[in-house]
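Hey, can you fold this?
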Amino acid sequence: MLYHLLYPLRTWLSVLNVFRYITFRTFYATLTAGFLVYFFMPAFIAYMKRRRLGQVIREEGPKRHQAKAGTPTMGGAVVIGAVLLATLLWANLANPYVWLALGVLVSFGALGGVDDLLKLSRGKNLGLKAREKLLFQAFFTLAFWWVLFDKLHFDDRLTFPFLKGFRPELGLLYFPFIYLVVVGASNAMNLTDGLDGLAIVPFMVVSGVYGLLAYLAGHIQFAHYLRIPYVPGAGELAVFCGALVGAGMGFLWYNAHPAEVFMGDVGSLGLGAAVGAVAVMVKQEALLVLAGGIFVAEALSVILQVGYFRLTGGRRILRMAPLHHHFELCGWPENKVVVRFWILSVICGILALSTLKLR
């Protein structure tokens, strides 16, 4: 919005020429989103406390988590609102990728919001059924895929780290692949969001990585130099990713141990899907496995635990899934689990960026 209002006035006031730079607008989108969450979250927390709308803790989880029952949840709604407003303020709204990213964020966030409200109304950790969630997620992903290919004529070739010339074309199989990336990222973040501050820092790392990748993919000279796919217009997604990082920082202020608020499914499903969508739009889908290594590990721990349990008639690989609960039951304090996962997420982010020069 500010880009469209102020940039045309650059001929009268030369300083407004700064709005042409994606880096400038990304920086201020980050600050805007962070301050919005910081200032509005206390009112949201107070409202949820007055209405006694607190987190319902599942009984089969670690016993120490029962002390967290009643903590205000659905803080992700404030995060999404801040990202939405910051992006609308600082991004070039003529860019279709920006609207696609916002559409994925809001639609998956709304699905998570319905899930949260059902849990709160029932007083149990029972929201939408898994089948219902996957059905809605498939519909939202189908809409995302249709706009990409029917309206934007998007390239359906894949890019892999370390393999410069290997770009297989998937055709119609690209939709199942997009579904795996977007829905997988959404649900993986949902599984990771089980300890105070655990999910939001790896999320900020991944958002930062993809903000840089978006900027590089949208810059023809950088893209050709690094031998990554050039995606005209994708650079504007850096502004969106900056808003994600900023909102994440604002949320961490209140979500750090002991958490004053949880993001809820509205946050985890929406934010995870948004990062997955950005990965698709900047043609770095496969790299998400490395950049989001923590989320991948958490999701795989659940898949392997459930699969092994069914195959062996009740035996387990881990003491409890997702993975962070396993380490809790091994005797690690919650803070130690969280900080160590943060460290690993930063390492994953650095490794992901290092592949730019190892192609």
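Oh, and this one too while you're at it.
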Amino acid sequence: MTAEFTPLDESQCLRLLGGTAVGRLVYTVGALPAVMPVRYRIAADGSVLLHTNAGSEIARAVTDAVVAFEASELSETDGSGWSVTVLGRAGVTSDIAASHPVPAPLSTADWVTIRIRPELVSGRSLPASPACEV
């Protein structure tokens, strides 16, 4: 018997996102999907905040674009865990208070804070499986 995913409500999803620091930003470049691991924080309003270089591919591609953001924690030993996806419009923010909790960028080059305003938040949890097989 296979364990089934259990849907998570939005408040559970945001709580789980608040407990991790690395996720995956999904955006498009030249009409093709791109996925980039990023360090992030969740703002009080549920927005996803991340830093990037002002001239980076991410900054160019996500400004005023609909993007996806995903973070997860999955156990390699028993298969348990969760995954949360946020869909929303991304944009550069200059709100210092909003960008304050985001981890500092790796360099001091010109960087910007990207805010993803959530329009759809979904998540699933997966219980432990006695026979976790790949």
